[in-house]
Queue: 3 jobs
Job 1
Amino acid sequence: MPTSIKMPRLGESVAEGTIGSWLKNEGDWVERDESLAEIITDKINAELPSPVAGRLAKILVKVDETVPVGADIALIEENADVSASPPAEPVPGPDVAPIENPDRANVMVRENMSVSDGNSSKASTRASSVHVEERQRISPLARRLAREHDIDLNSIAGTGIGGRVRKEDILAYVEQRQVPVGPQFTAPVVGMTRTGKTIFTPAPVGSQFVAPPSTPSTTFEEDGIEVVTPSRMRLAIAEHMVRSKRTSPHATTVVEVDMTNIAKWLEKNKEDFKKREGYSISYVPFVMKAVCEGIRKFPYMNSSWTEDNKIIVKKHINLGMAVATDVGLVVPTLYDTDQYTLAGLAKQISTIAQRTRANKLTIQDMQGSTFVVNNPGTFGTILSVPIINQPHAGILSMDAVVKRPVVIEDDAIAVRYMMYLSLSFDHRILDGAGAGGFLQTVRTKLQSYSREIDVY
Amino acid sequence: MSAVTYLEAIGQAIREEMQRDEAVFLLGEDVGTYGGAFKVSAGLLEEFGSERVIDTPMAEDAIIGSAVGAALMGMRPIAEMQFIDFITCGFDQIINMANKMYWRTGMPVPMVIRGPSGGGVKGGPFHSASPEAWFFHAPGIKVVVPSTTYDAKGLLKAAIRDNNPVLYLEHKLLYRLPELREELPTEDYVVPIGKAITRREGEDMTVLTYGAMVHQCLKAAQTLEQEDDLQVEIIDLRSLAPLDKESILESVKHTNKVLIVHEDTLTGGIGAELAAILAEDLFEYLDGPITRVAAPDAPFPYAPPLEAAYLPSMEKILAAARKLAAY
Amino acid sequence: MRLERANLLQIYYLMRLTRAMEDRTRTLFLQGRVAGGVYTAQGHEATTVGAAWTLGDGDFIVPQHRDLGMHLTRGCSPRAVMTQWLARGNSPALGRDGQIHIGDMHHGIVPMISMLGESLPVACGVALTMKMRKRSTVVMASMGDGATSTGPFHEALNFASVQKLPIVFVIENNGYAYSTPTYQEFAIADLSDRAVAYGILGESVDGNDVLKVVETFGRAVEYVRGDKGPALIECKTFRVRGHSEADKADYVPPELREEWLAKDPIPRFEEYLTREQILTSALKAEIAEQVKAVVEDAVNFAEQSPAPDPATVANYVFAPEGPIAIIGETGAEDQRYINALDHRTGKPFNTMTDTGKPEFVVTEEVGRR
């Protein structure tokens, strides 16, 4: 094995060096400490003395070439055919000095301690008291979140080290309480106004929602069937679906909207918009904007029926928006939706969708919605009947925009971009007239756009 | 303009400030004819003459004391410590003279004390110091620690223009690192003192660090992303005094976990103060223990294996981050 | 240095004022009206007043704690001094510091700290700056015998010598560094011998003879102003009281004290002035009256001044952005011109220190300049 000669560190801050000249040629014999090459660095120039005696087998770095400190610059064959040359020994690197292993030292100290701590009665007393006083481990943040959301910590199994309850556990629990409304989406049930006033308190979630794993598991398979224990989220969805159907008498009504101008505008401007703004724009901001207009005209669409038979009408319009994730759909909230321009909404939607997919939603994101806009149209559906996200008064589904032959003015038939909007509403709060009026407003707004749209 | 090293950026800042303002001058050991032990000031004597690039006797107290005297007269001296370790020889001039001057007399002391700090270059116990905590603790002096070539120049310019004593700690390991070579703006710029910078965004934890450790932490963050799917946010403090509390708190509020990494020793270090601030202001935002990775409470050793064991290594940073993430 | 009659009277007045201010401070201390310790310099008056007298406008003193005489000679107001002792909120240090730690660059007074000797390198920086600005400024940096044992003493003298800085270093050798007598501090007879090691001018002078002090410093100032490098002048004097007023100084042999009390610089100078028929008994009474009035005014002013506001305790640690004070800027006509305000108070630097009347004014013109 030839010994490799490395570029030395000539100065504390020097990171690289240049070969000024080779003082030996390949094949030359070199004594230990005899100069091999001239090295040039930012700080000094120096001759490099060979660390070993041997034959310069190979020059790896040419004159005027710069290499980092530590790079191989030459090989010296120590077992060269000169019997007088000293026996080869590996060049000691800086890292092989015989020092004590600090880890081993630590272990020894610990063993000593345990030996000296040999008072058995004292030790056992301590152990039992630890057992008795064992408390739940919980991070300060998780404790605060639990308090804010009225969560009994005993009902939560932590997933941190030693079963510690941490942020993720609380967020998962809250998410699971926010029971989904339909197979494509879930939505929060912790209905709070932005000011923090609780409008709706969900029925206590049974312990069965705590125990199951967060992912489904198969318990056994036989005779072609498979029994699956659903995930916590699935169970929560199930519970909420049943409760929503039981709570609100659902009625559903549908309108058809001509989206041609918006579709054409999007076709023409979508790419530019994305390039300019860094996020995409779709049909959703348009529908949300129109829904806000509808709600302003029909404020009861933004309300809740309480357990003591009151109707609470909410002043803030906070639309929930369905976003697909790996574990199911979640419905984060866009606060004060009516305050944004179309571009502003597009940005909010893009931001929150990204946060959702990254699983970085905050509790704030998961509460406070007052009405949901759902977009199963992305799955190509043309007509959906959504289930209300409690405690809302309604939910709107927008289905796919598709080209259809449509009768237009003067009984002409034209190809237009059409979309069904399907509204499910709580018949305790609203009747068909109100719901229809709301949908008319939404449709009128959507059809009011010309080919030139100012999204700002 | 070609890319320059961290070291050259420091030289550029001094040169440009001396060109811009006659009040700026440099004094220290071997800064003139020799151009500085690390060649930071190479060429300055030729350009500005021996009145403004002063080779001093080996006397840190006189170097810093003279700088204070000149600053009182309205000059903006830059006092170089050949190695920042030697700042202890002029400690009194900083702590008792410079730091308290404006506070008790109304006379500003606009001066910079700068020099090579930090280890990792086999400098041993007297050429590897990270002295920031001593000065961080002493009211009346600002402390800045650049980690990039851009910041090296911009922070030094800000320090020179500041109306207070500023300790500017340059890391000698970074002086000539090829990967830190950078093309700097041709126009004049400063990096404001008191502003941290987010070097990397992440959701899972915040790493608070500064100086050469910024680069170590950035490498660790890459590994944590690839191997553990962790997104680590890295805040380069840049300015230790005053601290950019706002940025620190905002980040930790967001990530809920914090790892502090510094090359200086653990006890009473910058990390200790950061931990106290976070515990006081953000207790109920914390989802795990505030964790520190720092040098052990021992002097800086010489032998390579000891130095390697002393400095916060990738392994230590990764282990601490993983433990914190799983907490 | 030629002294006119008016100059001699002014020097006498300043020596008397210095003594009276310190006597009054001691009284206030004994009455418990001074916040902290009191350091006086009875016996130093010929040295402090005489040395500072030889400076002109635009020159600087870098004083130490026994240099009240230098402060007053430079024009620092007795009111400012008293507000410092009584820790008032309007003192030059705004109550942050006491004693005669009065930074007053307008009057050419560089603020001192208690780490004696540490001001000497600062003096180098002041001189270095004035040299760069092509001013013929002289810096007078004083120290006690004690400070000559410190590292900064060596560092400063050496640096000043190498750079040929226009500094007159003054050693007020008063026999004791706190309780340590000179023979335990150094093993040479004359501290001015230290000058040899730095290749600079060195001289020792009777520090209790004001005329000799003025003469010696007059030459030294002229020498350093002539770009010949620094000078080191030792004034042999004696601290006839304790290190502070809380020190009864029983380590000082009584006969030694008696010996020096007999050499008290004020009666010595009085004798000379009387002999030369410069000081009449009427004039002496008038001066005594005015000294009394100035001290009274200073004390009253300080006592009526507000205490510092505790709410400001954390203020002024850092100087804000904005123009900084530049003293004796190249091109400025007034060498003492300071082009910025004290940012702490928003007022000029000399607002406090210019109040009161440090100068003796009689019908005959008497003035330092």
Note: The radius of gyration of chain C is 20 Å.
Job 2
Amino acid sequence: MAAALLCMVLGTLSAFLVVRTDLPYKRSLRTLMVLPYAIPSFFSAIAWIQLLGPQGYLTRFFVTLFGAGTAPWNIYSPGGIVFVLTAHYFVLVFITVAGALERMDASLEEAARASGATTYRIMKEITLPLVMPAIFAGGLLAFIGSIANFGIPALLGMRARFFVLTTSIYYALAIPDFALATALSGMLVVVALMFLTIQLWLQKGEGKYTVIGGKSVHPAELKLHSLKTPMLVCAIIFGFFISLVPMLSMFLTAVLKYWGAALTPGSFTFEHFLYIVNLEAAKRALFNSVVLAALAATVTMFVGTIISYMHVKARLRGSRLLDFLATIPYAVPHTVIAIAVILAWSRPPVSLYGTFWIILVAYLAVYIPFAVRTTNATLQQIHNSLEEAARVSGATFGQRLRHVILPLSRPGMTAGWILVFMPALRELTISILLYAHGTETIGVVVFNLQDAGYREVAAALACIVIVILIFGNFLLKKLTGGVSGF
Amino acid sequence: MDKIKIVNLKKSYGQGAAVDNVNLTVRDKEFFSLLGPSGCGKSTTLRCVAGLEEPTAGDIYIAEALVNSSAENLNVPTEKRPIGMVFQNYAVWPHMTVFENVAYPLKIKKVSKTLTRQRVADALDTVGLERLADRYPSQLSGGEQQRVALARALIKEPEVLLLDEPLSNLDAKLREHMRFELKELQRRAGIPILYVTHDQAEALAMSDRLAVMNAGRIVQVGTPMEIYARPADCFVADFIGLMNFIPCRVVAHDSETATVELTNGCQLKIADRHGLEGECVVAVRPEDITLSRTGAVECRIEVRNYLGNLIDYKISAGTQIIRVQTANTAVYEEGAGLTFTIERASLLPSFEARQSRA
């Protein structure tokens, strides 16, 4: 909850700065702001441990700077968890609020100005109330994300024996106490669904704010005048700290002999990368993750296309229900899906528990909503008359699919494939609950290495994943012309 | 020979009927329009002919072959019907060149490469696009995309051409130009056209015959001249062109003419073969009224709009406001007291028909 509130404040402020002022380098700043969300949350946790942990770079910097004995903070605490959750999830608020600010009709503010209001009063009495629904919607998303998050509280809280719902479920499974795990999952679902309902309800209420949206008049930029330079410095430092510093720290740790070594030329090494290359589990995990992610992406896109075609194009009866069913897993925290998959698939006649396939089943459940959303959007963009024109030209169903629908939806479908592949590749929450020896994923290996104290190796592996993710993101942006990706 | 014959066509969605008992025939080489306000069922009728919608009831024949019959449970799929169609948004495939778009129906028919090239060149020549064959649709203007869609519809030499508001996305100048061009093209190709539009000027200008539709039913079928001069009811009268409606009461009539009394007590004689009685409406076109100082009914000029080729007046006679259009030589000042004479008018039953439309 605290994390969600902080997210709302930070997200709104930064969105406002980036969208509505005449700050220079706005586009780059925007990329910088949303970058943290592109890397998995438990990577953020690892990076922030490297920075702010007892021997962290920033901790030591602080200690030497002020000559204090120990750092005044402890990352392994509820406070630390809130901090990292905020750094990770404020992006959700940022994106929703930035979107609302961009869509707002400039004349609303101009009317206030014509009525004689000062800039400050316009912001307070017109702009802020109008984007309030967006702030709340973003805040709720951040809340749902935070409460369903596993990696951050697991890495930061379990050591201090501070448990949240998701980590308790993990703990209960490790005992193993299925009854407890199931009960806790039930609680998690109830909380998540409750807040999701509120979010949906809020979205409905947005109807009365229909002034947002419609005409695309770009709102006037707010002149910052003398505040320009200080604001720019603040924004850059903020963006820098929130997104680049953790990545740099990750990279630094990966190439240092040991975490906390002095930064001299002699202490740099590539041995951790070499170690990974030779580590059987890491190679296996890399293979598992790539195969799992590719399979999940392919199968979900295939199923998604079929569901979407029935829903969007053929408008078959009952396809609405199918479409709705396929989006339910969206609302359910991943931990819960993992538990549900165990319950459903670990008993005869089909017992998959402990195999590679149970992870795939869970991935399919999790990522089908993503797939359906992209395939729906892609097929909706193809106007019905394009297919009808092919019918009139004499094309059969198969010919229409081959000559018209598939070629036209290819960019969207490829983007959707990557959109599933990338999060599946770095997935932790599900695989940590479902893996057995031999079916580890990258996420599991990084998590276990970090947990066992092999920070440098974990960092090296994380770096490899980050590079893949950034590359994938770049590809995605190319494919969708900048609509998806960061 | 009838190229399209629709018998008792009915299409309902849920409870309401979008098309209700429509009967019509399109003759060979005829330009036939379906005209009506949006939601009147004209597009649904066209899509039933194309096979893109399945009728709830009724029979449809194309070139005297039955393609749809609810009684025989027959519904020939669109791709098997001998039709060409142009859509409102052109539906030119963006991932194919102009050549590929136009050649597509031949590709489906597995026509040989050389023959295809020949026929596509001819089709592009017909619509005046021969130099743009290698372009992609995104590099074409709306009007050019329109022609690509036309060429694609014509290339398989269909029995009939179905056009669904093809001009509505063009700007006004180009639209008027395309009216002539479309009609010329149709004459050259000698192909019957079923044309759907909500634009009455378009329908009047191009059609050999047209059907006016309202609320799923055909209200009147006829040549443009018949429909303009003798509208069947208030709806048609109001929808086609400008029309003044003056309430009146029939006081006497013989076999050919009725004598009606207007609310201000004036009496008029109007041709009427239907033997209408009681409360009626006199429908008068603005150009069928003359203003003078020696006419039958007194009036006052309220507003004068000079339109260049003619003058548009709003006059008042008692409580009745009347639009009058005169030649640009008949200039009267606003506020002037005058008289007007009704040269031609129709007597239509009651006001209800007009109000029920709203």
Note: Residues 207-217 of chain A have pLDDT under 50 and may be disordered.
Job 3
Amino acid sequence: MKGLVVGCGRVGSSVAKKLQKAGWDVAIVDESEEALMRLGQDWPGEFHVGHGMDIAVLEQAGIQDADAVVVATDGDNTNIVVAQVAKRRYGVPSVAVRILDPARASFYEDRDLYVVSPTRAAIESLASWALDGARR
Amino acid sequence: MFVLVVGGGKVGVNVTRTLLGDRHEVVLVEQDPDRYELLDEELEHRAILGDGTETFVLEQAGIRRPPDIVVAVTGDDEDNLVVSQLAREAYGVPKVIARVNDPRNQAHFDLLGISPTVSATSMVMALIQHEVPEHELVHLLELRKENLEIVEVEIGSQSPAAGRRVEQLSLPETARLISVMRDGKAEVAVGSTELRAGDQVLAVLEPGSEEALRELLLS
């Protein structure tokens, strides 16, 4: 299986390592070369420096053959665009995208994308914890 | 007309100013607090401070009414794309105009059905091509909605069209000549117009028929 991870921050780098440990071929795209440090000394996969919206970079990283694409840069709107490009331009079978803003997360959920919103998850879990506490 | 402008840079502000001058109702969204202060004063409180890709900011700016048109002209293409998608698909805004900053991102706007778009870079490039042609066939204008484009061709000295009348050319069904310019004077192209080497010809055509036109007028 071939995985492409766009954005090599805390989330992207860890997802990449997990896929790689599971035996996948993994390519990562990040704007900054320093992000490679997050992957450790012996990262065996590909690393491409460039912006996720740059089609040349995505193709260099093999988006056209990817089985799954995970988009987790620090920009919601960049993530939204890159995820839709992966799905609609390249027909990638599975596309997951991180969207911090809960409003945009719910709007983009119905488009064949797997949307993960850490902010929304935190809101829901904190609120239900507090509400449960009141009943405790 | 009620217009919502997202992005208070030079483009956004000048669009807002011009529309206000024409007595339209305009709200401008700007996310930089210092810039916002400046604009809000000049525009007599028609500015809203916030990130125009946040739905609560858009709602505060009146997107639920909805506006007749949303103009997404921030300096970030991803923001302009998301504003446009939200406006059209989440709030049913009938018309959206988006600015493309990096022409390489045009493909993303096309993919997501955001049209019309405006790109200063592409327009300057088209003008450069027009003024200093490097290719023999210059794209002057794309009419996306009509699926037509207007191109300019200089009749080459080896062109099979040189010395022939327009009606004698076997133009493809999908292309028509508009005008012929010779020695600085332009004339509407009619059947009896004779073409000569060095003529600047304008043609309207469906995308994809460039090659046929090129062969006919250039080679």
Note: The CA atoms of residues 103 and 163 of chain B lie 39 Å apart.
